[in-house]
Amino acid sequence: MTLEIIGLISGFAFKFISNQQKGLQEAFLRSMQKNEASEKSIQNAREFAKLDSGKWIRRIIVLSILSAIVWLPAILPLLNIPVIAEVQTNIKGLFWGLFPDKIIVDFVPLNGFLMSEEVKESLKIIIGFYFGQAVAK
Tell me: the pLDDT tens digits for 90-124? Predict the structure, then answer.
C-alpha cells in the first residue's frame, strides 16, 4: 500500500513539474513571437522613414514661420500695409449682475506687423526640434 501511495505521489509530482515546464516553454515561445513581431515592426518603420514624404512639408512650415518672424516685420512697414487687429473691451455689469457684463469687439488697423504668441511658440518648437535632432545624431 505504501508503495502505491509513493507511486501516486511521485507520478503526481512528475506530472505537475512537466506541466509547469510546458507552461514555461509556451510563455517563452510567445515571448519570442512578440520579439519577432516587434523587430519586424521596427524594421518596417525604418524602411518607411527612408521615404522623404514629410521632409518638404516640414521645410515649408519652417520657412513660413521664419518669414513671419524675420522678413515680414521688416517688409510690411516699408510697404505701409496695415494689419487689422481685434480689440476686445469689457464693460462691467450694473446692479450686481442684473445687467450682465458686455464685451465690445472692435477692429483696429495697425501700421507695421503684429507678432502673435503662436508664432513665437512655434519658433521655440522648431528650434527645440532641430537642436534635439542635432543632439540625437
Answer: 888 777 767 778 888 999 888 777 777 887 888 88
In the 8-state DSSP scheme, what is residue 68? I
Q: Are 104 and 91 in contact (CB under 8 A)?
A: yes
Distance from C-alpha of 101 to C-alpha of 38, rounded to nearest angstrom: 58
Average pLDDT across the chain, whole number? 79
Domain residue limits, the chain: 1-50, 55-136
CA-to-CA distance for 129 and 137, rounded, in angstroms?
A: 12
Please give the grid coordinates belonging to residue 68: 513671419
C-alpha cell at 127: 528650434
